[in-house]
Amino acid sequence: MEEFHSVSKKPIYIPLLIGVLLLLGLYLTSLYHYLLFHSLAEMFSIVIAFSIFVLAWNCRKIIDNDYLIFLGIAYLFVGFIDIIHTLGYVGMGIFIGYGSNLPTQLWIAARYLESISLLIACFILDKRKMKINFILLGYIITVSLLFLSIFYWKIFPSCFVEGSGLTPFKKISEYIISLILAAAIFFLLKRKEKFDHQVLQWLVISILLTIASELAFTFYISAYGLSNLIGHIFKIISFYFIYQAIIVTGLTKPHELLFRNLQESEEELSYALKATNDGMWDSNFESGKFYKSDRYYEMLGYNPGEITITPKVFEELLHPEDKERVLQKIQECIEGKTKDYSAEFRLKTRSGKWKWILGRGKVVSHDSTGKALRFLGTHVDISQRKEAEEKMKKLARIDSLTGCYNRRCGLELLDRQLKLSHRSKSPLLLAFLDIDGFKSINDNFGHDEGDKVLKEVVKLFKSTLREIDIICRMGGDEFLLIFPDSSLKEAPLIKERLNKDLTKLNQTLKKPYKIELSVGLSEYNPDNPQSADELIRIADKKMYEDKKK
Q1: Per-residue b/e over 461-500, b at no fewer than 16 CB within 10 Å?
Q2: pLDDT tens, per residue, the chain with 549 residues
Q3: For residue 545, with 0-12 CB atoms within 10 Å meaning exposed, 13-18 middle and 19 or more buried, which class applies?
Q4: Measured between alpha carbons, how far is 380 from 276 in angstroms, rounded to an integer?
Q5: In the chain, what is the straight-line distance between the N-terminal and C-terminal CA atoms, in Å?
Q6: What is the reported pTM?
Q7: For residues 330 and 412, what is the distance between their CA atoms, to the nearest angstrom?
Q8: Which pairs count as long-range contacts for 347-354, CB under 8 Å and 24+ apart, including other chains?
Q9: Is 259 in contact with 315 (CB distance < 8 Å)?
Q10: Coil, strand or helix at 446
């Protein structure tokens, strides 16, 4: 299958140089004003946390794996706690009377929430129907309880004591958080087939740096200490890799996002299409590449690689009667006027014959403005179905014994011809006929012989009448003949030809009986229009008059 996405390799030293300069700038900021450094460092991670949520939330309807959605919700609440942590930092002057313990408690709460979420997310990889509302409610309750335990009930364990530094709970918690993160790495690697290789690397590096950050925070005795500075720098780098893994991937590879699920789904679809004998097509408007499966070409009699069917070639292969309708339906789907595309049409095969195809498709990707980027679907060979449908239509229209039109179809055709005659101001001649002595033939020679007589009479009509004339069996031995653009003036000539050919038929058959016909005629005059029923009634009456002669 053709590749629709290519990743350009940019020189790695450019982002590295930018990163080093930014970190150097942050370090110099810490020397000038540590509180400013801390605020910038935390705001960096908060912005990324909220960005992950925004991306995940807006993509939730098109993502078929809940890992990203779950992480997005988790980082929304992690980022919220980090905001309170930043505002509560010593020197900010917002939460009076709390000292360094408050921001440390909030830090531990946020890191527990982040690490546990990363671990749980590994087990959501195999889930496909996560209940988002329950997840949101769970996080709201959890974060609310954390805030109540810190600010209202004041039962959250102390994490920092002024003059002494970190409490045992805080240090042990950092080790526990590191173990949870290590477990998250372990389970990520066990499910590595679910991820793009590069994305998995970034996620693992991010978690490793988070562990390093946590360990650095086990040593400081001052909120402005060196280990605190190192811990925040590790956190910044960690969130940068989260940014690369989720935000950059989500924006630059919107068709792939984080997972290989789409690729796996396409492979499964390919196998399924082979099993069902359907052809697949994929139009990527972004790259300008148009893929057709081998089966697609085989349906039209081509060997793979023998011809390339581009959109222009597809238009050329469409049957002239189908072209406008099909292209309009495709365009409406691409423009978003319809949810999907479905049409039955004929395509010219390699041999020049027409093949009936059922084409179905859907736009599966749009850009930020709503413009279609990728349009894919299938072609199904429905020739046999169309042939069966045609046979069914024929059975509904044709008298099975004689091969001429049946009563129902004959009346429909008569109504249509009357309308045409009325519009064109042209006459229409009707003949109502039956076979004289037909009951006697059935009684004396059997119904099989009677059936042969009916068939011979229809053959007679077909050989005598014009191609535009219409033959209908009304039932039993009665027939209706419709003569477009004819009037009673032509009636003698028509009767003469019928009688002449009927005489020849009897001479050829040499039966112990003679086939004779009684005929009644009526004419439709556009200047004095009559209904079909009235015209048939008149012709039927005249037929019985003819029979009495």
Answers
A1: beebbeeebbbbbbeebbbbbbbbebeeeebeebeeebee
A2: 333 333 334 455 676 777 778 878 877 887 888 888 888 989 999 999 998 898 888 877 655 557 888 999 999 999 999 999 999 988 888 998 888 899 999 999 999 999 999 999 988 876 556 788 899 999 999 999 999 999 999 999 999 888 888 899 999 999 999 999 999 999 999 988 777 778 888 899 999 999 998 888 887 656 566 777 888 889 889 988 888 887 766 555 544 444 455 555 555 555 555 656 788 898 888 888 888 888 899 999 999 888 889 899 999 999 999 999 999 999 999 998 998 999 999 999 999 999 999 999 998 888 777 888 889 889 999 998 888 888 777 777 888 899 899 999 999 999 999 999 999 999 999 999 999 999 999 999 999 999 999 999 999 999 999 999 999 999 999 999 999 999 999 999 999 999 999 999 999 998 999 999 999 999 999 988 899 999 999 999 999 988 887
A3: exposed
A4: 9
A5: 81
A6: 0.52
A7: 35
A8: 347/300, 347/317, 347/318, 347/319, 348/300, 348/317, 348/318, 348/319, 349/299, 349/300, 349/301, 350/300, 350/301, 350/302, 351/301, 354/319
A9: no
A10: coil
Partner residues linked to 436 by β-bridges: 516
Strand partners, 225: none
Provide the β-strand partners of residue 354: 348
d(CA 527, CA 161): 111
Closest among 483, 496, 495 to 543, alpha carbons compared: 495
Of 504, 435, 416, which is closest to residue 473 (Cα–Cα)? 435
CA distance to 202, 277, 326, 381, 433, per residue, from 346 (Å)? 50, 18, 10, 10, 41
Tokens standing for residue 493: 């000539």
CA distances to 42, 170, 205, 447, 450 from 243, rounded to whole Å, are 14, 28, 12, 88, 88
- Cα–Cα distance measured from residue 69 to residue 66, given in angstroms and rounded to the nearest whole number: 5
Supply 196's token pair: 């793009």
d(CA 180, CA 293): 46
Tokens standing for residue 549: 């002669």
Name, in order, each residue with C-beta under 8 angstroms of 287's C-beta and a sequence gap of 6 or more.
Answer: 4, 5, 6
Task: Provide the token pair at 469.
Answer: 């004339």
